[in-house]
Amino acid sequence: MPALPLNQHELAEAAQLKQLFIEWQHARRSQGLPASQEAAANQLEFGQSALNQYLNGKIPLNIDVAIKFSKLLGVPISAFSSTLASHADDFAAAKDAMAMAQAREHDFGIVGKRITVDAQQAEHIPIKKVSLTLRAGVMGFEASQEDPSESTIDLPRRFIEENDLVPQCLLAIKVKGDSMWPLMIEGDVVVINIADTKPINNEFYAVNFEGEAVVKRLVRDGREWYLASMNPDPAYHRRACRGGDCIIVGRVVRQEARTLMGRV
To answer: Please, which of 190, 246, 261, 262 could form a disulfide with 241 given CB 3.0 to 4.6 Å?
Structure first.
């Protein structure tokens, strides 16, 4: 599925970013410093192709990318995107939660590096059930709440603690389509950890692929990463995962139990 076209507001923000980038190039050249797109891409830590697409409004900005542009150009995010600037606090909160998870391994002040289950605490922790919108937002996506009548699912506290997960970084989403059949089918609910985006061979991830939210298996072949389906139908061939068209949203850490009635 091709990436969704940017709306007029996003196109205007891309144009403003491009103008700031041109001004940055002029300033760098006047100082005798490298100012090519290749040089900028190296500092931004993503490919020159992705840089060109961001500047020309081919793919939408996200807050992580916006922060990198902000540092490169020496301007606040609001200078080119008021929308992303408004998400900065949410992003900072998510980053803090991720840091908490990573710090557990080094925090020798916590007995056993893990919180002990307290009999007085709830046995289950509610996790937000959301739909992913892959446009401007926190870490390349926005999470909108599902129907309020079923806005959360309950995960066992012991599961969260035994796997060193941070509840604030967990989201529950529904699987779409049948590309992951028979392991996952349409409507199944999986829990993703947005603090875990490092690719691991043969693990499952929610991915922003060309503007579409998909759940796939990541497979490494040589130096390349690919998105693989479970469905053996040839129509579900693997797709290369690279650059700004393939952004890992989070690793799948749990699949909720299925209801089998009416599925055969």
So the answer is: 246
**Which pairs count as long-range contacts for 184-189, CB under 8 Å and 24+ apart, including other chains?**
184/215, 184/230, 184/255, 185/258, 185/263, 188/255, 188/256, 188/258, 189/129, 189/153, 189/255, 189/256
Q: Which residues are within 8 A (CB) of 85 and not within 5 positions of it... i.e. 6 or more apart?
A: 66, 76, 77, 78
The per-residue pLDDT for 118 is 45
State how far the Cα of 141 lies from the Cα of 194, in Å rounded to an integer.
11
What pLDDT sits at residue 240?
A: 92
Instruction: Annotate the chain with three-state secondary structure.
Output: CCCCCCCHHHHHHHHHHHHHHHHHHHHHHHCCCCCCHHHHHHHHCCCHHHHHHHHCCCCCCCHHHHHHHHHHHCCCHHHCCHHHHHCHHHHHHHHHHHHHHHHCCCCCCCHHHCCCCCCCCCCEEEEEEEEEECCCCHHHCEEEECCHHHCEEEEEHHHHHHCCCCHHHEEEEECCCCCCCCCCCCCCEEEEECCCCCCCCCCEEEEEECCEEEEEEEEEECCEEEEECCCCCCCCCCEECCHHHEEEEEEEEEECCCCCCCCC
Mean pLDDT per 10-residue section of the chain, whose length is 264 residues: 68 92 93 92 88 90 85 89 70 52 39 39 82 51 55 89 87 88 88 89 90 88 91 90 81 80 51
d(CA 60, CA 83): 12
